[in-house]
Amino acid sequence: MAGWIILAVVLLILAALLALPVSLHALWQEGLTLRLGIGPVSIPLYPPETDAGEQAENKAEQKKETDKTGSSAKEEGKAQPKGQKKGLDCRLRQIQYSLETLPPVLRKALRRARRKLVVDNLRLQLVFGGEDPADSAMAYGRAQAAANALFPLVQELLTVRKSDIRLSLDFQQERTVGEGELLLHARVGSLLWIGLCAAGGLLRWYTGFRKIGAPEEKEEQVKKTKQAHAA
Questions:
Q1: Rounded Cα gap, residues 180 and 206, in angstroms
Q2: pLDDT, tens digit, for every residue of 166-218?
Q3: Sign of dihedral through CA atoms 130, 134, 135, 139?
Q4: Which residues 6+ apart lie within 8 Å of 179 measured at CB?
Q5: Are 127 and 170 in contact (CB under 8 A)?
Q6: Measuring CA to CA, which residue among 174, 151, 208 is closest to residue 88?
Q7: Distance CA 150, CA 130 (A)
Q8: For 27-132, where are the alpha helices, taking DSSP H only?
């Protein structure tokens, strides 16, 4: 009798865990922030939170590095936009790669999940620009085509409560700028089922995604190593 009671308790706990609500809030403005919600608990995923002491130390190191360089404000102003532009171009390539690669993977998994994933808010605003108008137009065209293919699929497979996607082209703009937000929720059981269905395809996507960002990550690593040696 005791064994049946223990089994019933275990099954009840498992059922409660599978029914637990999970949410993801992604916000892209000046940088990317990700927060994971599990029940009433909210957990920051990216960027990782640091305590006040670490933040103060980081600020002090940045100030020290700025003082050491002794470079003029003009030189610093010239170098910074170049690095920002390179990082933004890399992120845009990663976004375009994801828009081209993820739909087939997610289509198969989400069809099996039967609209169990709910999108509370989907917002994306991109203004394409740059030094070369032809490159800007090509990037805009690729993004527009990917969005036109992906968004109807999202509406078909997910429950979308609110959406606002705006892509535009501005030849007067010196660089591509944008912002976005994604808020979605589901149950733990639904996410496990989706993950099992899409595991292989997501692994291949992640490998390609990291490969695109590898040059920038390597450059950032070299920069940090040089700063550490200089300190």
A1: 21
A2: 999 999 988 889 999 999 999 888 888 877 877 888 888 888 888 887 765 55
A3: positive
A4: 28, 29, 123, 124, 125
A5: yes
A6: 174
A7: 25
A8: 52-69, 73-113
